[in-house]
Amino acid sequence: MTTLTSLARAQAVATGMAQPVCTVRHVHVSDRPLVLIPLALAGEANAPLAAMVGDDPLAGRLLVVSQPRNRDRRFAFAAEFADIVVSYIEGYYSSVQTVPGGRGQEDRTRFADAPQVLVPNPACIGFVRLLGRSTRFRRPSGEYAVDPAVPVLGRWLSFLAERAEHPGSCLLLAATDAVALHWASGQSPVEDLNLAALMGWVSPPAGMTGAEAAAAGEDPVTWPPAGPATDPTFDNEVLARLIAACDLPDDDARARNRAESALQAALAAQVAPTWRLMWQAIGLLRGMPPGSRVAARWDADKDAFTSYAGYLRDDGPPQPRRDSAVAAARRLNWLERAQASYAAQRAFDDSLVMAEYRLSGEAFAGTVTAAEPDRLDSSGKRRKLRPLITVVTEDSPRIDQGATLVSPSRPSQQARVISVSAAPVQPVPAARRPLAVVLELAGGMGRALTPESGSVPEPGEWLCYTTLTDSYQPQGSFPDRAETPWTHGGPPPDYVPADEDASEAWS
């Protein structure tokens, strides 16, 4: 928890309402997201119990497994679930767009939009991951054959779960994560995982404070858990009895049908409040203006979606159960670079996010007090345009001489720190005296030895500089799969899907 977020949480307690910690929205919100609220049977490893799913707030569809311990009923549920989810995903195949190629590259095409699946909390993302793992290896023929859509569903769920690990991706998004990213409640981050309590702080009903609404949101009778776990009291007093009644013999079909109808009604009552909260959260997020770099991150999601759709079209095998050592290292390096880029993008888009880095000393903001726009560096073989500017700041940057900085307002221009000293401002106590930071600029000023108009900051201009960067970072150096060192198991065999891959504790 950062300093400003802690302050915002204290203010939320004092005012009785969650406080915004962002000025813009940092997540993409689709025009037609697919909302998914899964429920799992307690005491079983990811055994699906029910799911409310749909892309229309007035037309959610409830799927129920009358006996989650029965394999046939679970995969009948998976087939019905696949019909909805895969149809929704493949609906984005119909429209493509042309993306101009870069220097020396040809134009390419990708899907014009991508699916977005929203779930209540991170635990539901875990449910999606495990459901994908337990279905992507299934076969539509042979022993224990399943509907042909089931393994396709599993591959898409696995893709969405893997993409959810990518910082800034919004193909699979938890509502609690998205809301807590933009508002600070008066409770702990663990308590923010309760969607009803979090929304109580952000948008309390009339006549209630955020604390009162959050306390009401923790009542499992009024606001049942948002999944995948269910309320233990409901499990013991209602669910166990109804599931047992659904196992009546075939000669008592009428009683079994009544029990299944009662089970469906009970589960509908459990997910209906969360369904309303999900669409309320979507409305809140849509009400915020998007950050300038959100669209570029969504384009990256569209590229990933297009790539995986092509992989499936080419009959690529399902994702392996485990990555090889080299693949895991490459993925970790990729995620680390993506996290650094995402942090920089959020700070560049949002002054409140940047304020966190100003407090930590990784950024500073101030006024330009002097500038030498025509300064040339003649130390090398060729003269180079290297203007100097002096920025006076009241921040406390922890930046070494020679460090390279960048300004969000001039991302293509680099600034090297020449010196940091106390500004000649009197009379001011030494402990509070502003700092004068002298910077040497490079890039973003044209190719001539005279800078283009407006490319060099002028005295009186307010600027922010930071060590954060969103520039391209080359990936780490890793050996080929065939050269995996013995310390990491040696070269792994080529992956070939096998029947044993489908053997899971919950399947």
SSE map:
Layout: H1 3-15, E1 19-20, E2 34-40, E3 48-54, E4 61-64, H2 71-90, E5 96-99, E6 108-111, E7 117-119, H3 122-135, H4 149-164, E8 172-174, H5 175-182, E9 183-184, H6 195-202, H7 210-217, H8 232-245, H9 253-286, H10 294-313, H11 325-349, H12 351-360, E10 363-372, E11 376-377, E12 384-385, E13 388-393, E14 404-407, E15 410-422, E16 435-442, E17 462-466
Parallel strand pairs: 2-7, 7-8
Antiparallel strand pairs: 1-9, 2-3, 3-4, 5-6, 10-13, 10-17, 11-12, 13-16, 14-15, 15-16
Helix pairs in contact: 2-4, 3-4, 5-6, 6-7, 8-9, 11-12
What does this structure look like?
There is one protein chain. The chain has 507 residues and is of the alpha+beta class. The protein folds into 2 domains: 23-96 and 109-317; 351-466, Elongation Factor Tu (Ef-tu), domain 3. The protein has 12 helices and 17 strands. It has a 6-stranded antiparallel beta sheet. Strands 4-3-2-7-8 form a 5-stranded mixed beta sheet, sandwiched between helices. The protein has a two-stranded antiparallel sheet with strand order 1-9. Helix 2 packs across helix 4, helix 6 (195-202) runs antiparallel to helix 7 (210-217) and helix 8 runs antiparallel to helix 9 (253-286). The radius of gyration is 28 Å and the shape is globular. The two termini are 39 Å apart. The model has no long low-confidence stretch (mean pLDDT 89).
